[in-house]
Design brief:
single chain; 143 residues; alpha+beta; GMP Synthetase, Chain A, domain 3; 2 domains; 3-stranded antiparallel β-sheet; 3-stranded mixed β-sheet; 3 helices; 6 strands; 27% strand; globular; Ohr family peroxiredoxin
Amino acid sequence: MTQDAKLLLTATSTVTGGRSGEAYIGRDRLHVRLRPGRTRQEGTDPEELFAAGYASCFLSALNEVADARGLKLEPPQARGHVSLHMSPEKDFFLSVVLQVYVPGVDRPTAQGLVNAAHAVCPYSRAVQGNVDVKLEVLDAPAE
């Protein structure tokens, strides 16, 4: 981080108990029950929270890119899939698939916007070189 960077936001969440605990998210202290992935317990897991955060940040970047190009988009949609893996050496790592639907533009334009958003999205930049991210442009909204 550079010394002259302007701080825009600091988000804070408090978690107790890890994957089987609870989280209080943000300034409104939204309470979320946490559960280990691959269980049927009520709640959410960290990968689902990361998928939601990444998808929402990505759409903000997409809208910024479109605005800079003079395009007014109908509301786009992103579905994030965050997968947790374990290597043969028992190391854990993540991968991401972002499926993005950009209504009202042709596929090449949508692909260009998605690629440009990926280059500037803070989440994309944060995981670059650490997490495999696959981008998919959808022809219809995800169900």
